[in-house]
Amino acid sequence: MSQSTITIEELVELISTCAGIRTDAASAAARTFEELGVDSLGVLGIVAEIERRIGRKLPGDADMSPSPAALVALVDEGAPASLERL
Amino acid sequence: MKREAVVTGIGVVAPGGIGAAAFWDLLTAGRTATRGITLFDPAGYRSRIAAEVDFDPAAHGLDDHQVARMDRYVQFAAVAVAEALADSAAPLAGVAPWRVGVSMGTAVGATTRLDREYTAVSRGGADWVVDPARTAPHLNLALMPSTLSGEVADLVGARGPVRTVSTGCTSGLDAVGYAAQAIEDDLADVVVAGAAESPIAPIAMACFDAIKATSNSNDDPARASRPFDRDRNGFVMGEGAAVLVLEEASAARRRGARVRCRVAGFANHGNAFHMTGLRREGVEMARAITTALDRARRPATDVDYVNAHGSGTVQNDRHETDAVKRSLGEHARRVPMTSIKSMVGHSLGAIGSIELAACVLAMDTGVVPPTANLSTPDPECDLDYVPMTARERRTDVVLSVGSGFGGFQSAVVLDRGE
Amino acid sequence: MDTVITGLGAVSPAGVGTAAYWAALVEGRTLIAPIPHFDTAGFPVRLGGTVPGFDPHEHLDGRYVVQTDAFSWFAMVAAAEALRDSGADTAADPYSTGVLVCSGAGGVEFGQRELAALCRSGPDHVGPYQSIAWFYAASTGQVSISNGLKGMCGVLVTEEPGMLDALGQSGQELRRGTSAMLVGGSEAPLGSPFSLACQLETGLLSTGEDPGTAYVPFSEEARGYVPAEGGAVAFVEGSSDARARGARVRAVVAGHASTFSGVGSMDPGGEGLLNAALGAMARAGVGPDDVDVVFADAMGTPKADADEAAAIRRLFPRGVAVTAPKTGFGRAYAGAGALDVAAAVLSLEHQVVPPTPHVSDPPVGLDLVVRVARPTPLRTALVLSRGAGGGNSAIVLKHPDHA
């Protein structure tokens, strides 16, 4: 059973495993990927891993999300629960 | 007396037709050789299009043993070598084998075979520790990209400096540049130079899928490769090979060879920025162009034609446009600059040599090949890219530019000598 | 203009750094052991020379660790040491320093991991770094990027002789105006079972199970070579530039030449190696009496060893000291020539010829240095190398006081 959303803490872990950068939830929530030192390839890897975990594709421009917070919001928007709310 | 390297023969295996004549027909007609992938089943891939070579090795003189031993990219090289040697009319007669070199480029080597054989020995990827008893013959030759130059050396009988150059997507320019340097520095009298690639295989397509570098215009493959066009969305994978016979200039003239052009200048620089990213300003590529022109002792205003890297990614096309403006100044607006990748795709390490072969043919025929599919220029790409239709124009000094992963930026200047 | 080496770095089965490497060489230490990276029970080849306890996080930023293969880690760590050692200020003009790191098979362990993901789960499961980690140019690119070096960037793939050819190529580049180059070679083939499986067909890898007898070239027990991982990088520049900035010149690169003998042929008869050596010595302006030590290729098969010994005897009819320190740890492919060049530089510096570990007696007619290191005046060293791809290269290195 796959999850439908992603938390900032999980994203912190993905930033470490996919991009090799250690950060914490507070920093990740407040900063852009660029400020954290995560490059475009790193974001692509993070997005791919999120897609595997939630079992669905994110919008084609998900890898252009400027920050972890924006990416978390993007995942939330497409989650089944939020679709039901629409 | 200063030694110089001249081109006396070319051979081409490119999508759309085998041989330099078919290649030039395609380019000057502005036809594209991009299509849906047939070399493997691309279902499930983001990019399912490529510029493939319709290739029957036996029809081109390769025997069963060569076909079994050589990976597809080496087979391409072997066919291109035969054409180049014939075109050059016996460049090796009377040259000691120790004075004959080989300099061949490839970015990803025998990916096709390694990919296929890995699947077999790992039981579809299930076993990390593969079963060595299940390996097919010649796998060690596949593991080493040095095999490309070695096979070429054996075909021509070269016993001098033989090396494979593997600087990613600038390999095809760098291999020819190094070859010219080997002649200039008296390390060899003849060097068979060029590049080959056959990357239309699952792992290579998948890794470019993962970074969205390749076009996903799967419904319109013929118009998918659109360098400098507003509607471009990535490069289209290609394959092929080109070989140039380089000789020391005075020896070539003495034997009455048809001298096609001189390799006048070569340079490359790293951007020391990012493995795949480019800074818009194109400072390092501009520097490579300037250094190559300096080494050729040519002012920027001498350049009659620029063969662009023109891969058809937004990032590349703008970076390159700025780099050419930066290095050629106002002259950049007067010089035609075209991308043949619009027609034959981007064959990674091979394309640099294929593009140099196109430059030689442009100088030979007085025709500049067009940039196909360029119907709506990107407003930020504002040079003369010769859209859609080839143009008659005499060219005496030609610049070919390449850019690749690793941050490498290369430039080669060809001219008719001083 | 002479090319000089003013910086050196190594990652070898002796560990990280040239100091650890030299200490092991002088001792003739055994660094061959069972390959620890995977279960080799199904393989006929089980011994290797691996870099002990190498944790990339101790040496590299985490970003580089996730996006590169071990062959690039070794190159980056060795390059950083060479750069530090040179004392050069490369930031003043980033365009003046180039990079040329040779590769053999590329990032094979990283590549196998991504191939496995592709085969098992489909193209969506191939990660974004496969495009930059597996290819042969990865190390040069990352060394350029991580050190801010924008000079000429090159990658040669000529197997074992790579470093020798890179030194030759860098001399050509320096003559054309580049000020300095980081040149080297590195390989990490033992983390990938697929890579090892691909090589078995050559029959050149030793199937020995005893580290003390598995790789014993020039002996009656010769049975192939033990594979190894590692690499070395040198910082090279023009002698006048080095003098002008007061750099310590560690060795002078006096002459290089390369020849070819046929795909996978291992130079039958030794003619290719002989011609390479003659070419390198001619370009260096040295005769047989000027050379004090030869670092042999030491393939470890009876035929290849006999051919090399014959070539050395023809080159040096009055004899010369010969050594092959790599028998202590194995052949590291594109790292092999680099580690041999590093050994030769260190040997000239210390005026000591390291021994050929595990070979107990010199063969008839060859002054192979065995058992213990030999202190002796050394002016000039000749390094010989044959590649699995068919190339042969030679390079002459001189002590700076005798250049």
From TrEMBL, chain A:
Domain of life, source organism = Bacteria
Pfam families with a match to the protein in the record: PP-binding (PF00550)
Q: Which residues form the Carrier domain?
A: 5-79
List the keywords (alphabetical).
Answer: Phosphopantetheine, Phosphoprotein
Gene3D superfamilies for the chain: ACP-like
Q: What does UniProt give as the signal peptide span? A: none
This chain belongs to the protein called Minimal PKS acyl carrier protein
* Annotated organism of origin: Nocardiopsis flavescens
UniProtKB/TrEMBL annotation, chain B:
Cite the PROSITE patterns for this sequence.
KS3_1, KS3_2
One MF annotation (Gene Ontology) recorded for this entry:
3-oxoacyl-[acyl-carrier-protein] synthase activity
Ketosynthase family 3 (KS3) domain: residues covered: 2-416
Q: Could you tell me which InterPro entries the record lists for this protein?
A: Beta-ketoacyl_synthase, Ketoacyl_synth_AS, Ketoacyl_synth_C, Ketoacyl_synth_N, PKS_Beta-ketoAc_synthase_dom, Thiolase-like
Q: What is this protein identified as?
A: Minimal PKS ketosynthase (KS/KS alpha)
Specify the domain of life of the species encoding this protein.
Answer: Bacteria
- Family stated for the protein in its record: Belongs to the thiolase-like superfamily. Beta-ketoacyl-ACP synthases family.
Could you give one GO CC term from the UniProt record?
cytosol
Enumerate the UniProt keywords alphabetically: Acyltransferase, Transferase
* Species of origin: Nocardiopsis flavescens
Q: Which GO terms describe its biological process?
A: fatty acid elongation
One of its Pfam families is Ketoacyl-synt_C
UniProtKB/TrEMBL annotation, chain C:
Domain of life of the organism encoding this protein:
Bacteria
**UniProt-recorded Gene Ontology molecular function terms:** 3-oxoacyl-[acyl-carrier-protein] synthase activity
**Lineage summary:** Bacteria, Bacillati, Actinomycetota, Actinomycetes, Streptosporangiales
Q: Which PANTHER family match?
A: POLYKETIDE BETA-KETOACYL SYNTHASE 2-RELATED (PTHR11712:SF322), POLYKETIDE SYNTHASE-RELATED (PTHR11712)
User: Which Gene3D superfamilies did the record assign?
Assistant: 3.40.47.10
Q: Which organism is it from?
A: Nocardiopsis flavescens
GO BP, one annotated term: fatty acid biosynthetic process
Tell me the SMART domains matching this sequence: PKS_KS
State the family named in the UniProt similarity comment for this chain: Belongs to the thiolase-like superfamily. Beta-ketoacyl-ACP synthases family.
InterPro entries (UniProt xref): Beta-ketoacyl_synthase (IPR000794), Ketoacyl_synth_C (IPR014031), Ketoacyl_synth_N (IPR014030), PKS_Beta-ketoAc_synthase_dom (IPR020841), Thiolase-like (IPR016039)
Name of the featured protein: Minimal PKS chain-length factor (CLF/KS beta)
Family matches, as Pfam families: ketoacyl-synt, Ketoacyl-synt_C
**Any idea where the Ketosynthase family 3 (KS3) domain is?**
1-399
Which UniProt keywords are present, listed alphabetically? Acyltransferase, Transferase
